[in-house]
Amino acid sequence: MEIVETTGIEAARNIRSFNTEVIIIFVAASEKYLKEAFELYAYDYMLKPLQHARIRQSINRILHIKKQEDVTSSISTTVKRPKPNPKLLIESNGKSNLVNIREIIFITRYERKIVICYRHGKVSFWNSFEEIKKILTDNFFCSHKGYIINVDYIKEIIPYGKKTYEVTFYGSNETALMTAEKVKLFREKYCLKL
């Protein structure tokens, strides 16, 4: 049996030629092969000497992604997927308002009504938070007993009080509240740490 020496880049090219799903992590002494690793869709590029925290971080991200993929695949086989751009029909004061769910920035309660703040304005109507939660997608997060926010629009989370934070959004001057407990949950669920 003849042993053929190959570089990590060559090995990655061979792997990619028959399987595009494999997670590839490069470990190198310098950034010399960073461009090639990027072109081969490497998941990570670690420099020597390796540090345990850095390895753990990469492995945890992989496990998190795999877990999300497993959940998504199991959901897709049991749940009917929403239309690509679902709209929310809101009937209030004899009018019918259509709001793209993706454009909703946050939902709150004001004077016992539901208020939806979206990219092009606000609309209010009578309903319950529980009914609204049932139709929202995964990118909506209950940040406070009176707020459901779209995490895609979050710009900043700023300390506001002893156990409360103020949330600012891209594309809106409106703000929402988030409890300290929910800030921790939000970071764990939606954020990658560098």
Overall description:
The chain starts with 7 loop residues before the first helix and ends with a helix. β10 and β11 form a beta hairpin. The chain has helices at 8-18, 34-39, 52-78, 129-135, 180-190, and strands spanning 25-28, 44-47, 87-92, 95-100, 104-110, 113-118, 121-125, 140-144, 147-150, 154-159, 164-169, 172-179. The strands form four sheets. The protein has a five-stranded antiparallel sheet. It has a three-stranded antiparallel sheet with strand order 10-11-12. It is 32% helix and 35% strand. It has 194 residues and is of the alpha+beta class.
User: Strand percentage, roughly?
Assistant: 25-35%
The amount of helix comes to 25-40%
Which overall shape is indicated by the principal axes computed on the Cα atoms? elongated
Order of helices and strands: HEHEHEEEEEHEEEEEH
Strand tally: 12
Strand order of the largest sheet: 7-6-5-9-8
Query: For this entry, what is the oligomeric state of its chains?
Result: single chain
The pLDDT mean sits at 84
Distance from N terminus to C terminus (CA atoms, Å) equals 45 Å
Structural class: alpha+beta
- Biggest beta sheet attributes: 5 strands, antiparallel
Outline the low-pLDDT stretches. Answer: none
CA-atom Rg in angstroms: 23 Å
Tally of individual helices: 5
